[in-house]
Amino acid sequence: MFSRAIRSAFTSYTPSMMARTSAQTTFRYYSAGGALSEGEVSERVLDVVSKYDKCVGKKVTPASTFSELGLDSLDSADVLVAIEEEFNIEIPDDEADKINSCKETISYIRRTPTAK
Amino acid sequence: MYSKDQFLSLYRGLLRCHRILQEPIKSMGDQYVRTEWRLHLKTDKKTAFIFYKKWQEYLDFMLTQHQKNDDLLNNTIDGQNNDSNALPSFGRHMTVRELEKLNDEQKGQLSKLKIESFQLFEDDADGESTIIDPDITNNKK
Q: Are residues B114 and B104 in the same domain?
């Protein structure tokens, strides 16, 4: 039983990791030079931020800063990690420390060619 | 002492390392990290230092184990390693010293958690009913 539990955890883990790799390869071939439009990035960023539990019911605009939305530094980190998952990227520490608003998040995604 | 940026970097790393876990284990792990970190926002310097060290140890453990599982998977795909005993592993057993430090209430909680977590996978299983031995330390099949 124990080994079955492990195998069950493992089976679902494998395909997602492989899917991610092939998607990244596809991107490299077909979208040289910023595939995502300003509008799309903005919409998806605002969507992720609005769904964060502390932001639900608040008006989130590109101009909103994380502190205006009532987010502390740990909350902002939660949001950025969720943004990473949305765009399938990893934001390096020195960049993440500088991002304090929706606008800065959108701008970072826009200049990250691997974002998809 | 560690800087605020170092704490935040570790925190992001912890949430990221849970991406390899399947639901609902991922959400449970993330929620545990979030709660613990918020409970320790205003702690004294000595505790904060130990707090950082212990979470760093956890992160290192998770990353090392992830790497090992990845290597195992790659070898299996290449057909170089068909050893059926070499299953990927998740987590580890508690040491005797760690178990000795727990009080009765904590042991009770841990035992409940163990039973609940096995039921999660029981729902996934292929229909056959199995009585689970909650003492997994004696069940290394």
A: yes
Q: Which of B3, B12, B70 to mutate to test the interface with A (most CBs of A within 10 A)?
A: B12
Cα–Cα distance measured from residue B71 to residue A68, given in angstroms and rounded to the nearest whole number: 45
What pTM was estimated for this model as a whole? 0.73
The fraction of chain B above a pLDDT of 90, given in percent, is: 49
Q: Which residue of B has its CA nearest to A98?
A: B5
Q: Are residue B38 and residue B85 in the same domain, yes or no? A: yes
Partner A, chain B 104-123, Cβ-Cβ below 8 Å: 118, 121
Superfamily in which the A38-111 domain is placed by CATH: ACP-like (1.10.1200.10)
- Which positions in chain B touch A93 (Cβ < 8 Å)? 5, 9, 12
Q: What percent of chain B has pLDDT over 70?
A: 77
Separation CA A35–CA A52 (nearest Å): 26
> At which residue do the structure tokens 């727990």 appear?
B102
Cross-strand pairs, B5: none
B20 CA: distance to closest CA in chain A (Å): 6
pLDDT in tens, A6-20: 444 444 443 334 334
Q: pLDDT tens-digit profile of B72-123? A: 888 765 555 555 556 777 788 889 999 999 999 999 999 998 888 888 767 5
Q: What is the ipTM of this complex?
A: 0.71
**Residue B121 belongs to domain spanning:** 93-141
**Does B79 share its domain with B101?**
no
CA distance B5 to A73: 10
End-to-end CA distance of chain B: 44
Kindly determine whether residue A73 and residue B4, on different chains, have CB atoms separated by under 8 Å. yes
DSSP A91: -
